[in-house]
Amino acid sequence: MTAARGRSLRSWTAAVFAVYFASGLATSAWLTRIPSIADSLGLGPAALGALLLTQTVAAFASVSASGVIVLHLGAKRTLALFSTMVAVGLMVLGAGVTFLQSLPVTVVGLLLFGLGSATWNVAANVEGTALERGLGRSIMPMMHGFFSIGTVLGAGVGSVAAATGVPVVWHVSGMAVVVFALVWSSLPYLQGAQREALLRRQDLQPITSQLTIITGTLPVVSRDDDGVARTPGDGPDSSGSRSGAAKDGETPLSMRAAWRDPRTVLVGIFVLGMALTEGAANDWVALALTDGYGAAESLGAMGYGIFVAAMTTGRMSGTWLIDRFGRIFVLRIACSMALAGLAVFAFSPSLTVGLISLFLWGLGASLGFPVGMSAAADDPVKAAANVSVVSTIGYGAFLGGPPLLGLLGEAVGVRNALAFVMLFVVLSFLLIPWLRPLEAEREGPSGRGGTPSR
């Protein structure tokens, strides 16, 4: 590798890390101020749950269209457009909460945030996948680690802002400016589009052909030199020009078959339980600390920071742990930790113990969603369809979780309502055997496949 190429790759890597870091900052900017948002708008738990649902619905709609958007705009232009949308959404949200105390304006801000953040994340994953190909090695866990670092730092800023009485509008608007500056200063160093063009000239499979796997939603349509539109699984030569393509008679993108596959559906239910475990903390921990434990808003933001710090720790160490001890063993320990942390947080009379339990909860919840996605993609021939099914089922937690927990919180209190999530953690624990690696199952106990027993 020449010195110039090495510098170029380092700059590209730093730019991608910055994009992920900025996404974490943006996410934590408003989540840490949920107690202030609820107080300013006069929202109880049920109404707050409905408000949170607006962001989730917008994100779900956005991610469903993200494949087409990234395909037509490219990752760089998509990041430019949708990070701007996120920044504007944060400012509108802040104005609605502080200046206008208007629920409709706040809803508009959350809709803009949801629409922008979901497609931003998909575009970042596309650019990150291109970077991995350029580097010739996997660094995706580190990329998502930088997102988590952003959430931790953002939670710290939110805690200070809440403790010092900084109005929501100035806090989230300041973070919006930082996020906008980080992303736009990184754009000139992103090289995914150039690399993809080079791959097309070399007749190799470009990154955008993997958008079905990255988004889990839409098939990608490209055009051959003769102008004929084809999906990645089509073409006269199925053996040499397509990476991971199906052989004759196989149907790798058969959604009907994926929905009928028991393992895929059960992996999806596992992901749903763990996604609810993670999402419940993101949405409700700060309010549970202020309303349930009677803590100050700054401690509510700190509690969220503890949880995301634990998530960061778990995800940064998860790859090594799974390689060392096996997927099944690690997931059983993780689910047990999540269940224990959640139970202590819901029922402990001590605020100090409750804060400590958040770290245990975060560690346990950290690996469920990403490992579930990996399990869905165990069979490379069926990966796109299986990941799509698992993603769709998992998103049910983000769609149904906020209003359900809000209604329960209205009746029994937010902290007690979180105990309901324990049922889903138990369900996910019982489904862990279905996440055994398929390759290890095929090899049996005599091969490399001691892994399933772990």
TrEMBL record:
One example GO MF annotation: transmembrane transporter activity
Annotated transmembrane regions: 12-31, 43-71, 78-99, 105-124, 145-163, 169-190, 264-281, 301-322, 329-347, 353-371, 383-405, 417-435
InterPro entries given in the database record: MFS, MFS_trans_sf, MFS_Transporter
Keyword tags: Membrane, Transmembrane, Transmembrane helix
CDD domains (UniProt xref): MFS_MosC_like
Keyword Cell membrane: no
Membrane topology: Multi-pass membrane protein
Main location: membrane
Gene3D superfamilies: MFS general substrate transporter like domains
Ranges of biased composition (kind: Low complexity): 232-244
Subcellular localization: Membrane
Gene Ontology cellular component list: membrane
Name of the protein this chain belongs to: MFS transporter
Organism: Kocuria coralli
Taxonomic placement: Bacteria, Bacillati, Actinomycetota, Actinomycetes, Micrococcales
